[in-house]
Amino acid sequence: LYVSNNAPTLPLLVDVSFQDEGAAAGDVIVANGNTGQFTAIATNADACVRLMESAGDKSRVVEVLEKIGTQARHAGEVIKHLRQLVRKEKPSLSQVDVNKLIRDVILLIKSEIDKNNVTVRLELDSSLPMIAVQNIHIDQVLINLIKNGIDAMRHKEANQRFLFIETSVYNDNKIKVTIKDSGSGIPEHIS
Hints:
The protein is of the alpha/beta class. Helices cover 43% and strands 20% of the residues. The protein has helices spanning 35-53, 59-86, 98-108, 110-115, 135-152, and strands spanning 2-6, 11-15, 94-96, 119-123, 131-133, 162-170, 174-181. The strands form two sheets. Strands 2-1-7-6-4 form a five-stranded mixed β-sheet, covered by helices on one side. A two-stranded antiparallel ribbon has the order 3-5. Strand 1 (2-6) and strand 2 (11-15) form a beta hairpin. The longest helix has 28 residues, at 59-86. The chain is globular.
């Protein structure tokens, strides 16, 4: 998997490794950011109850329930990964549709995207092959790159904050995920 965060001035290439590098359970930072997943699940469930009790639009309930499902599956993947680390088990791989993974990640952090007035544009190649990965690793890389993009656009006017995510196949069987933001990139004095 090739993941690229293409800032206008300096592309950042991330090589994703799918093997556990011997991290101890206490070293797992991934878990810290996911306690919010359980809070989000509960909040969304409460919203569904309120929607069902109100005379409002019931179709919104389906949207919120889909979000709850995505958040619960992601939290389950985190827990599964932590158990494997604690037990020092070999990580299990599953066949994944990268485009679905991207859509799920967007749904997971939609509140942050909305809060920062970011418009997300997806150009996802429907001919991508399934790949064997640990979902949680790819999720975390995508979340970090998207959040970095959001941070890079904070100084932009709200109507100028765009995040582009594209998938494609290259070299016949490799998947390329490109994430671009409309931020100004890394200042030259830093790069």
